Amino acid sequence: MSRDTRIAPAAGPTPSALVAQVTPYPTAARAGVDLRLDGNEGLLPAPALLDALYDAGPEVLRSYPDASGLERRIAERHGLDPACVVVTAGADEALDRLCRAFLGPGRECVLPVPTFEMLHRYPLLSGGILVEVPWPPGTPWPTAAVRRALTPRTGIVALVSPNNPTGTTLDAATLRAISAAAPTALVLLDHAYAEFADEDLTPQALALPNAVVVRTLSKAYGLAGARVGYVLGARTLLEPLRAAAGPYPVAGPSLLLAAAALRRDAAVRGFVARVRAERAALADLLRALGAQPLPSQANFVLARFADPDWVRDALAGLGIAVRRFAGRAALHEHLRITCPGDGSAFTRLAHALRTALQPEALLLDLDGVLADVSRSYRAAIIATAASFGVALDAAEVAAAKRRGDANDDWRLTRRLMAERGVAVPQATVTGRFEALYQGSAAHPGLRATERLIPGRTLLERLALRLPLGIVTGRPRADAERFLDEQGIRDLFAACVTMEDAPAKPDPAPVRLALQRLGVARAWLVGDTVDDLRAARAADVVPLAVPAPGEDQDVARAAFAAAGVARTFASLAEVLEVLP
Fold this sequence. Notes:
By secondary structure, the protein is an alpha/beta fold. It folds into 4 domains: 47-263, 3-Layer(aba) Sandwich (Aspartate Aminotransferase, domain 2), CATH 3.40.640.10; 266-357, Aspartate Aminotransferase, domain 1; 361-368 and 450-576, Rossmann fold (3-Layer(aba) Sandwich); 376-449. The strands form 5 sheets. A 7-stranded mixed beta sheet has the order 2-8-7-6-5-3-4, sandwiched between helices. Strands 18-17-14-19-20-21 form a 6-stranded parallel beta sheet. It has a 4-stranded antiparallel beta sheet with strand order 9-10-13-12, covered by helices on one side. Helix 9 (202-206) links the parallel strand 6 and strand 7. The protein is elongated. The model has no long low-confidence stretch (mean pLDDT 94).
């Protein structure tokens, strides 16, 4: 007897009111992204770090973990008693535990915002009350406003410095003032980015009677995947934190990796120095590109853009993820960009930003973007196959185009026929295809059905903004004939055709177009995944428009899977994002 394993909607159970008031932390990723500059991960650990796991052997997996050794090591680094250190499953778990230990029904958490997203969630999940104090990006820490927000119900004052996502900081005098103003509250200093800041406030915070410091190995030490953080503070403040923990919260392999990472201080110092240099260079570049970066003491830069959605999409199309803060009013015009701390990655980021914001040319595919070939080239594929007894339809041809490696219609026709069990020499297929497409003086071929998709006026407007080039898989004679017949050849400064370079998705024709135009940065608009893959491989922003007759939703899904920066309904929409 088979059993239906589908999950039916729950009719009875409902979530707790505490959980219902928060949303999940966003972790979505775009297709094709390989340079993640949206999560603030740090130094790539050396492979030798894994030796700690091999040396420990399988016992580390069999036994329940013991964090006391790592707590002693951390205590030594800070000159503390081990009882003043609690190791946690990342700084996130530390914040969660602190909220559960020091908040609850009727108790308030005072939080300057915008700041780390989980500090909006943990107080509410603990049953506490969140009291938000505005801290607009680029402004000093709101000392007076925080003081006004303090009440006898205040259980925690959360201070994030350097702040995420703004990168701004508070100073020791402010820390002392808040501690004195809230003597019965816990002053929580989230110091996740302390290594990158001008001043480490840990000693000053630990000198206060009501303060704890949360640190992490996810950033400067590059162990985000291991999830190891820790809390420093007086023994009396940490005992409730221990009580709020589950048993063995940090995995044994993570504890071993953390201990090994703490021996890499020289590598970490070098990484921090690179990040600080990149941070200054990135801010300078962003200003030169017309953005407004905020001063930062973290491993990232937050900047305001005229069109942040476009910059995010264009960078994603080039394989780079940056952080957009959807739904957060104070940050709706901003992007946060992590400094990679790696020379080649930073060079790639800088080129991508320039390409997104200051392109030097616009490249266009011909078929499907300029020329409607739904009744010519695509019809020729179907007619050629039919002449050899193979029945194809437009949907099958479109699906083949979406799969990719289909820029050469002659070869695609032969491949589709072979998939149906009909093997014909390529030269024979090509000859039949050309006869149907080209026609004769007495019988016009399918090419006579082609029409120009955008009007000349639109192309003229595009050409006024940027030099235009064509990158097509057509033979040169066919391409130039179409441009001449439509009266648009004069608008294009370069035309790369079948004879000039390997077919897309090879990036060679795109790079050749850049060379012929004498530029280094461009966008490309295509109608197939091959166009997009060629553009991405050539460091050109990949854009798409569905070809006439294509199912828009199906085409958009295929383009998204291929890593498109943005899909437009028509070429006219490209004007809206051109600088």
